[in-house]
# Entry
Amino acid sequence: MMLKFFFAFTLACFFHGNNIAKFTITKDATGLYIIANLDASDLALDLNGEAQDITIEDLQTYLYKHTVYVVNNQHCSQSITDFKIEQDHFIVTSKLSGEFNKIHTLRIKNTALIKVNTKQSNIIELRFDGLYRDFLIDENQPILNITL
Amino acid sequence: MFKATILIQKKISSILTALYILSFTGALAQVDSPPNILIIVADDLGIDALNSSDYGISGTTQPITPYIQSLKDNGVSYLNTWATPQCTTTRASIISGKYGINSGVRNVPDNLDLSHESLFNYLNNNVSTPYVKALIGKWHISRPVDLNHPYAHGLDYFEGIIAGIVNDYYSWEKADENGQTVSVDEYVTKHLTDSATKWISEQSDPWFLWLSHIAPHNPFHIPPQGTYSQTDLSGNRGKYLASIESMDYYIGELLNSMTEETRDNTIIIFLGDNGTPGRILEYFPNGHGKTSMYEGGLRVPMIISGKGVTRRGELEAGLTQVNDVYATLVELLSEDLEGGIYNSYSLAPSLTMENTITRPYIYSDYINGGVEYWAIRNNTYKLIENENGEVEFYNLGNDLKEEHNLVDFLTNQEATVLARLKLEAQNIRTGWSCNDAILNGEEQAIDDCNTCATDNLSFSNIGCCDTPNSPNVYYEYQEDTNRKVYSNNYPNHDFCYNPRNIPSQSYHDLEMDLNPTITGTITPLINQITGRPATTFGVALNGVMFSPGPALPFVYSNPNTNEYNWDWVFEPTNNQGNEVNQVKLDCASAHTNTKHGYHYHGEMFSYLEHEMEGITSARTVDEVIPIGWAADGFPILYKFGPDSSGNIKNLKPSYRLKEGERPGDGTDAPCGVYSGKYTNDYEYVMGLGDLDACNGMASAITLDTALGEQTFDYFYVITSTFPQVPRCFVGQVNESFSVGKISGMDNDGDGFIAEFDCNDNNPSINPLATEIPGNSIDENCDGLDTLSQSSSDLPLITMLPNPSTTMVRLINNYGFSYQVHLYDVQGKALFSVHNSPEFVSVENLPNGIYLLKIVNEETGAHEVYKLIKN
# Structure
């Protein structure tokens, strides 16, 4: 067991970079949604807890702290509508406040998991109004200004 | 001869002592004293004819050259020095500091135009110390012959042969210092040496002498007695070597004629001007000597010794050229250069320090028979092209003779190197290189025109680091007209992973057409609208998925907006390593996604070797190797397959790197040479290899499959070079390959989820379990407690009669050697018979049910039959 741990630890040190989380922005008649896909162990590490102990309130607080969405120059709050764990990942769906027929600009700040992994890549996926565009947020560039 | 040897030894001792003192004290004691320069050029001296063992060349006859050896022992020998393939072009390169494409001197004879600032004029114009400059011997860069040409290029003194050759070493003509043509009846090398000796003795100012020997160029005339040691002068090679030895003798004469003070204050450069002529060439193949672009024609000895050279007896492997003499001398005599000047790279730092030669490429060009040739190399590989589009590519690391043109056998890595060499040659030929480590052209700083960063490629995988600890399940069966595959997508071989993404079982329910047809429409693996993978390519026979398509974050992103551009996705097999922006492929060219799904991106070494040791390095095989099924139902073979003639061969893809540079500017899309960093760097060229755009072949092939023998009209191939795993389909793609994993629980840990397991609480019961008939348990989940046989499968043997009373006959349906083992229904072994018995006696057995097991003695394959004794 000790050897296994040592092996995994060694590998963890050996590998670096390219840890990704996805934040998929979708839209339907009811509003604008963010589906966040976060590595459970990283999230637990960032919250100083165990993955199985993370509550919806923890997630709400975490996302409030680490993500900002400004849509058409309007700051949007977010509320979690669903969350589940799949294959060591938290899948968290949040609804953004406000009503948007047409989205012209998006300003996104995202520092999720960057503290626990400096090589973290947070992928912003735009999947609404026929868009299929992806952006990278990382430690070097935590803010995106997107004009659509 | 004996007296001559003693004389030579005494003189060597004197020279060695002088050079030792010179190099030891030179840089310190004589810093302020302008050095003299002595360049000695040997005509037609290749690396097979002097110190050949330094280059890894053995088995050639060698001259004995103690004085050149003394220069070598007290200086630096540059082992990777290129000249051009002929005299004129090399001399023009040295004097102009430029490649032929820039000097305009492309052949023999030719003229070095006065518009080029010669080395001598550069020194005249830029060095405050008034150097006296002379060239004695061969000039050969004036056309039409102009006796004033050397002076126009800045020389103060010229004496020698303007046209460059003599017909007789003992009877020839020269232009004297007054420009008059005079006849000489004295051995050329001695005469030129004496002239040089006299000229040096007359100088009181710092001097620069270029002693341009005719030797050892043909005609191959025997030198004066006492100046050589060769004993076999019956052939031209012997005379040629004697000529080199004689030249060495006279180099000794010259050095000994100088005062110790003068010698100590002299930098000596010794070099050849091109390779050894073909008719006396050794080691290199025919046609690979002088006038060729091969190493036997281009590579020459070069030694720098004397004042300020503190590296003594060292071999320098950096890439150098004879035209580097220009920048080296400029830097030694006048000013610090930014790397060099024109196409000339300064070797001055290398005279005192190792590892200072940083230029990545050297280049040479030449027109031969009206056809322009050029060559370029890096540390290992060399490219030769000509204006007719012919290309040769060699690994000089293991093929100095250049006998194995790799153009048709490129690995991905080699293809990338070839593309870079091509582009670099193109840049050199159309302007100034941005990779030559020299401030030249429009550059404000060294190579600042190179705005595109060099792609960071990785062709080495991260290896194996773990072994499987879960079952490997691949279950193939037929359902209606479909081939069905259930897989837990867990490897049965060693692998490795990012600890975050440890492979785990991910269950797949796949199906494909049992009898696929070519639709006439090519279906890409990539969704042409989104740029994302639309499906996996197929499944290997161990159940692991082939997913060559890209995934985030391995996609080019705009450095300003951070938006990904899916037109430019990283080609995983060229970005295999563990650095940032590399995909970390393991020893099976596979990795695991964030959902722990293991998948192959390229040639699956670990898997293949697990199945067939040595297969990945095998050059030939006797039979094709089916390795999986594509999503359209066609088989996937490994590397080998029947060519259009039906012969099994290593099939080649028809893809290559695009030529030149990407159209992007480095913002929205990547810039730089098509290196293979991105999948889009490659293009399909019909007919380039054996395979089509989908890396397959429309050719009938019959295979033994789990569902019986089948014939297909098409097959795909996993190749060693791009694309390795195909990227498109010729048949109808089944949607099950784009669904991804299916959910389910495997309670008994046998790799089958409950939906596919008739008893998910017993790992001994699943569709792949061995059926034990008659025990009231359906081990293999076929709904029967009997041995099931596919109607299309003939059993190994046919057993008659059954039931039997005394004897059963075993009819061997496949002509193999087998053993017979008989068990009772509790599994207790009763007896065994070897040597393929046709009859087995059951007469002494009690009535009842028995299990008769047939084992193939060669393969170990076995079948169990129920036998009833009555």
Remarks:
- Residues 1-17 of chain A have pLDDT under 50 and may be disordered.
- Strands of chain A lie at 20-28, 31-39, 67-71, 74-76, 78-86, 89-96, 105-110, 121-127, 133-137, 143-147.
- Residues 19-147 of chain A form one domain.
